């Protein structure tokens, strides 16, 4: 935790360049709908007044912003680590594997707004109940109770701009690829969060990222970047790939 | 060719061009109902064209809100079948483990507390708690003949009495719950539960997470259930591999001489795996046959 706050402080000066003003509000829009201030990330709250997982709220120019915690969301961690590809924007249609209780999804929902849509696949009924609740409030999340290993069960879902996979399984890359093959538009982006520890505890994480990236690039996908998520997540990385025409 | 979608059923011709859309009602609940009932074939074209066609009938925001509500309704229908009897047994079994600890602590504390007042009493903890709850102070006990313990006031007695009855209730609940888990386990997994003590079988089920997961486990996984710590230590640091997990406490493994328990655990786990699969996938009662085979194998191992 200490390493994280250390890093956040460094981020404030180096990566987001806002510390010079010394405490004044210097909100900067990093990308469509994603704001940064003093080393913290925010998204504009789609349903003002409602918190999803106990995050902090901030007000700015009549907008309500929700803090996006990089220790709880891997996408936020990737943004803090200066990921270059952020294709999320208003109106995006996202296919999210491993939605869990909807922490990251709620921020995606803030970004894509009501004109976008997020299909969230989750197969654990305990967390799915949370997801249903959030989806009911936000109206742009379509939760699906299904096994990501069996895309035939939700074959009818439309083509999406982004496929985002966050499933801690040994065969997570294969699962993500099988889904991206069906549901990702040509030229769309595939995000896979790698949990090295769930693939093989004995191997070096860097080696695993390389092997998994090679699996993806072999199949009509171009690897754009591999972002290591240390120190926010231990032995995790985000692989970004673009689907060929 | 027909393809289902949240808003209705698309009909395509051979070239993949949409010929007709049979729209559902604009009520997500009803749409989900129709969706489940209808069949389809071939949907590749629909995924590409869905949004373009749907936007002819909906505005963008309405469409997204409708799909969201549709998915919620659909998922609720799929989820309702997902929680089975096995999940109830797992909760009861986990609760039982906690209850055993709690009731022991409470009974011991009751005995300790009451011994200040009536140190000569020589009853076991359960009966003691029952008696205190029933009679209260020592003077009311039928067999009381004088004591060296301290006198207690009315106030002390009330508190002690309610605490004792709480401890006794916890103990009674433990007994009731034990028989509930035993009976339930025999219903959910008759073959599996017949091969070992039903309460232990319930702990296996709880460790696996559900009957489905247990049935899909390899026999080596069943053998090592409960020894995860040792297993990962082995994988990481190349320590010695564990030979058994919870299976070790079963009567069958305990009955085998110590140097042959590893072998027995392996044979046992294989039969457990078979039993779990029969229970989950077919539900036939093969327990007598499996039991016989297992006993024969154990006989050979014992030598």
Quick summary:
The complex is a heterodimer of chains A (245) and B (303). Chain A is an alpha/beta fold.
Features:
heterodimer; A: about 240 residues; alpha/beta; Phosphorylase Kinase, domain 1; Rossmann fold; five-stranded antiparallel β-sheet; about 30% helix; globular; B: 3 domains; three-stranded antiparallel β-sheet; flat
Structural class designation of chain A: alpha/beta
In the predicted model, the low-confidence regions of chain B spanning at least 5 consecutive residues are none
What is the CATH topology classification name of the largest domain in chain B?
A: Serum Albumin, Chain A, Domain 1
End-to-end CA span of chain A: 43 Å
In total, the number of domains of chain B comes to 3
Largest sheet of chain B: 3 strands, antiparallel
Query: Helix/strand/pairing class of chain B, anyone?
Result: mainly alpha
Shape of chain B: flat
Question: Which second-level CATH architecture of the largest domain in chain B applies?
Answer: Orthogonal Bundle
Mean pLDDT of chain A: 86
Helix content of chain A: 25-40%
- The portion of residues assigned to helices of chain B is 55-70%
Instruction: Give the DSSP E fraction of chain B (strand runs of 2 or more residues).
Output: under 5%
**For this structure, what is the CATH homologous superfamily of the largest domain in chain B?**
Nop domain
Radius of gyration of chain B: 30 Å
Topology pattern of chain B, helix = H, strand = E: EEEHHHHHHHHHHHHHH
Q: DSSP strand (E) fraction of chain A? A: 25-35%
What name goes with the CATH superfamily of the largest domain in chain A? Vaccinia Virus protein VP39
What's the count of strands of chain B? 3
CATH topology of the largest domain in chain A: Rossmann fold
CATH architecture descriptor text of the largest domain in chain A: 3-Layer(aba) Sandwich
